[in-house]
Amino acid sequence: MKVEVKELKVLLDYVENKISRLETSGIASSAELFDLNIVDSNLTLLLSTIGDAKEYDLTDRHPHIKKALAEYRENFSIKNDETSLLEQISSSCRSAINGLKKIKKAAAETSNPYLERNVGIRLDFAEVLINEIASINELSHKEMKKWLLQNIDVDGKIGARILGSKTSPLKAETARQNGKKGGRPSSKEKAEDKKSAAKKSTASSKKTAVKAKADAKTKTASAKSKTAAAKTKTASAKSKAAAKTKSTAKAKAKTKTSKK
User: 114, 120 in Cβ contact below 8 A?
Assistant: First the structure.
């Protein structure tokens, strides 16, 4: 049984995709996965030994590969109908894009900037995604098979790219202010601004530290002054008390003398 090496390579892709799909779904039996892995390893080994040959004669020594090839060919004949449907969908999407462009043009002719933006940005998003389907007809056979045999993720950056390209009143005002200042600052200017800000921050910190030190000295001096005043007040009180005691003692002595 002669087979094109090109078909064997496609079969290997088919088997690997099927293994990946079954492992992800978790519905495959261990026996089915075991058989597919045998085909995968046999095909990989076979293709590594074929070299530059364009055809290879499969014999009874390759029962697993022959069985997988028969299944693939049967499955691919069904997939041909799906390929045809995919091409029809692609053509319909091209027509849909023309319709979107007409709607976008109508929205752009309104006097309401918010209507133009809110409708336009969503139409842009839809156009990018629909255009991806519309371009399926331009894909290679292998790339088209991916659409039929495995999931194709949507580019998550599409929305960000469209949103970033749109203008708004706030963006326009920011751009005008930047224009008055000579446009966006260069990397060198940004670096200099950062350096200047760092210097100002350092100077401000030093000034704050000096002020804090001066305030601390003033508080200390004030506390010492209050302590000295308190000591003076206490000494004065003691002096008055001593004078009063002395005067009282003299008065008592005088009274005692007069009695005698």
Answer: no
Q: Using CA atoms, how far apart are residues 227 and 224, in angstroms rounded to an integer?
A: 5
- Across the strands, what pairs with 56? 3
Per residue of the chain (260 residues), give pLDDT as tens. 788 888 888 888 878 877 877 777 666 678 888 888 898 998 888 888 887 888 888 888 888 888 888 887 776 654 556 667 777 787 788 778 888 888 888 888 888 888 888 888 888 888 888 887 877 766 766 777 777 776 666 665 555 555 555 555 555 666 666 666 665 555 666 667 667 766 776 777 677 777 777 777 777 777 777 777 777 777 777 777 777 777 777 777 777 676 65
Distances (CA, A) of 43 to 2, 69, 76, 180: 15, 11, 19, 67
138 contacts 6 by C-beta, under 8 angstroms: no
The one-letter code for the residue type at 200 is K
* Residues 6 or more apart whose Cβ sits within 8 Å of residue 19: 33, 36, 37, 40
Of 137, 147, 105, give the one whose Cα is nearest residue 124. Answer: 105
List own/partner pairs for 83-91 with CB under 8 A and 24 or more apart.
Answer: 83/144, 83/148, 86/136, 86/144, 86/147, 86/148, 87/136, 87/137, 89/133, 89/136, 90/133, 90/134, 90/135, 90/136, 90/137, 91/134, 91/137
Here the tokens at position 5 are 């090496």
0.85 surpassed by pTM: no
Strand partners of residue 55 = 4
First CA to last CA distance, the chain: 160
